[in-house]
Specification:
Elements (H helix, E strand, L loop, with lengths): L18 H11 L3 E5 L5 E5 H17 L7 E5 L4 H12 L3 E4 L6 H10 L4 E4 L4 H7 L8 E4 L14 E3 H6 L15 E6 L9 E5 H11 L12 E4 L6 H4 L1 H8 L2 E4 L6 H10 L4 E4 L1 H14 L8 E4 L6 H11 L2 E7 L6 E4 L11 H8 L3 E3 L4 E5 L14 E6 L22 E9 L4 E7 L4 E3 L2 E3 L1 H9 L4 E11 L3 E10 L7 H8 L11 E4 L13 H7 L12
Parallel strand pairs: 1-11, 3-4, 3-5, 4-8, 5-6, 6-7, 10-11, 10-12, 12-13, 13-14, 24-25
Antiparallel strand pairs: 1-2, 8-9, 14-15, 15-16, 16-20, 17-18, 18-19, 19-20, 21-22, 23-24
Helix pairs in contact: 1-2, 1-9, 2-3, 7-9, 10-11, 12-13
Bound molecules: adenosine-5'-diphosphate.
Adenosine-5'-diphosphate (ADP) binds next to β14, β19 and β20.
Length: 551
């Protein structure tokens, strides 16, 4: 600083706290609705003011259970108004809201609950049997709160059980949210651990608020008080991509789908509640689109659909635009990034894009959202050019990116200069659009060159008779690996290997075309809905390619 002394600004030191979001929603959008399809069945509706009042009651109730700042409270729950209240009560009082993915294998769930030393668990009715199964293994849990009312309380062998509604009704809403350092931990989410044990990402109030500010931006989710948001992405998956926070920040209506995420249930909610915005993984949208096509029903109010978690196929963007008038926003991120890293919006000067140009652009994962700086590097950690051609390991840094994993001494993914290696391989073009070409462990290595498994899958699902597809590298005596394509045909379709391979002609370089196609009834998925490539590689390890004997 040239020997000078930096001056301190004279602005208020108001800490960025999660409680400020719900206070804001109550003050400015107190009568705006939050609608839920409940686990019990019927629709429930109330307002931000009600949610705030009940969150304060819950904060008092947690105090009565002995929960103190810093304690971890777990949830095993769907997207509902009660889960929303838990988000605000637990973090607001200074404790840590630990959302657990109930789709993980039971031993992984008990590992996570013990690793986080959760003192209290909130569970939806759906997950009571799951908890009963593992109750004996839980080392730190002192209270289990079943998220229902007295009337629906199940008979259970679980110890120290409370009924959510009775618990909060026994407490007043007289509660002042405490002020504390914005760097305090607010919530905890474990990555699904497709390799090794799950790892905990511990968010802070500051990182969550910064993420909320930027996710509302026009070139991110573009949310305002004029929207009705349907978070289909689960609240146990990276805080539903931060939607419960940004919604309270901008004051939009929220529509929670509860456990019913099938096409018919989603369509009904979108139409009846006039939903304008939604977000979720491609698999969910595939089943909604299929339902719409079969039933002839509409989703007229829906304007924007954020799709991420896996690559969005071009055909999906086109179907949403052409048949339903909805704009697809392809997004990319990770649990470690809170999660948003990039979203795909056009820039000034792209107003005249034809539909085909739009769909082509939307194949890419999008541009950096402020606060998630990115670069690509080669194997020696040298930065590669943003020319849209060079591809390398994608690294990120910023205030909403984790700097370490919970209770882990070291992390191979973090380098000494403060960058985090995402495990994705990508290109970045001169306009800043990033394109994930693969997970570094999924890329198919053929004769020393790389083939993008994602691109092959995207092309395959563009075939009208294909419901889902996966591609993996299998051993080849000459090329080391060659692509094998696994295809789930659409119901009743009579697809042949030759049809499928022919479909790739002209769409990729000849040497990228898979060597073989196997038709399967279904593909394995991870707990977050991604293709479980590890399992596929195991299952097809001994698959002999028809090309194996040719030289
Ligand atoms: P997990 O717990 O399965 O790692 P994450 O949500 O943290 O769950 O997964 C992040 C990874 O998901 C990214 O590193 C990337 O590989 C993949 N991913 C997310 N969004 C996209 C996308 N739009 N296109 C391709 N891959 C994506």
């Amino acid at each position: 600083m040239g020997g000078g002394v930096a001056m301190e600004g004279l602005m208020m030191g108001t800490q960025l706290l999660i409680s400020s979001l719900i206070r804001n929603a109550d003050r400015n959008h107190g009568t705006t609705e939050i609608v839920t399809r409940t686990v019990e069945g019927p629709l429930h509706r109330y307002t931000y003011r009600d949610a705030h009042r009940r969150s304060r009651q819950l904060a008092n109730a947690l105090g009565s259970l002995g929960i103190k700042p810093g304690d971890r409270c777990a949830t095993l729950a769907w997207n509902t108004y009660r889960h929303f209240e838990i988000y605000y009560a637990v973090s607001g009082m200074g404790a840590v809201c630990h959302t657990v993915n109930p789709r993980l294998f039971a031993p992984q769930i008990s590992f996570i609950l013990n690793h986080a030393s959760d003192r209290c668990i909130f569970a939806d009715l759906t997950f009571v049997p799951l908890l009963e199964e593992m109750a004996d293994e839980l080392e730190h849990v002192e209270a289990i709160v079943i998220m229902t009312d007295d009337k629906h309380m199940p008979r259970t062998s679980l110890p120290n059980v409370h009924c959510y509604e009775s618990l909060i009704n026994g407490h007043s809403d007289d509660y002042d949210w405490p002020e504390f350092d914005e760097n305090t931990a607010s919530s905890l989410c474990y990555t699904s651990g497709t390799t090794g044990d799950p790892k905990g990402v511990l968010y802070s109030h500051r990182s969550s608020l910064i993420h909320a500010f930027r996710s509302g931006l026009p070139d991110c989710f573009n949310l305002s008080a004029r929207d009705a948001v349907l978070p289909v992405v689960p609240m146990f998956h990276v805080n539903a991509w931060g939607l419960p926070y940004v919604s309270a920040m901008v004051g939009c209506k929220i529509v929670f789908p509860g456990p019913a995420m099938d096409g018919a249930s989603l369509q009904e909610l979108i139409e009846n509640e006039k939903v304008t915005f939604s977000a979720g993984v491609p698999t969910i949208w595939l089943s909604l689109l299929q339902y719409l096509e079969e039933s002839g029903k509409n989703i007229q109010t829906l304007k924007r659909v954020v799709i991420g978690g896996s690559a969005t196929p071009r055909s999906m963007t086109a179907r949403f635009a052409e048949k339903h008038g909805a704009e697809v926003l392809h997004a990319w991120g990770m649990t470690e990034m809170s999660p948003i890293g990039t979203v795909n919006h056009p820039k000034y000067g792209m107003e005249d894009e034809t539909p085909d140009q739009i769909y082509d652009r939307q194949i890419k994962q999008g541009r950096e959202v402020f606060g998630a700086e990115m670069k690509i590097v080669d194997d020696d950690d040298r930065t590669l050019p943003n020319d849209g051609k060079a591809f390398g390991t994608l690294k990120v840094r910023g205030p909403s990116v984790c700097r370490a994993y919970y209770k882990e001494q070291r992390s191979d993914a973090h380098d000494e200069n403060g960058w985090f290696a995402t495990g994705d391989v990508a290109t970045i073009d001169p306009d800043g659009y990033m394109h994930v070409t693969d997970r570094s462990k999924d890329v198919i290595k053929s004769g020393g060159e790389w083939i993008s498994s994602i691109e092959l899958e995207n092309i395959a699902v563009g075939h009208p008779d294909v419901a889902e597809a996966a591609s993996i590298g299998v051993h080849h005596p000459k090329w080391d690996e060659r692509p094998l394509l696994l295809v789930v045909p659409r119901n009743g379709c009579d697809l042949t290997r030759e049809d499928m391979l022919e479909y790739f002609n002209g769409k990729v370089a000849k040497w990228w075309i898979p060597d073989d196609v196997v038709f399967v009834e279904e593909l394995p998925h991870t707990a977050t809905g991604k293709l479980l490539k590890i399992k596929l590689r195991e299952d097809f390890r001994d698959h002999v390619l028809p090309t194996a004997h040719q030289s």
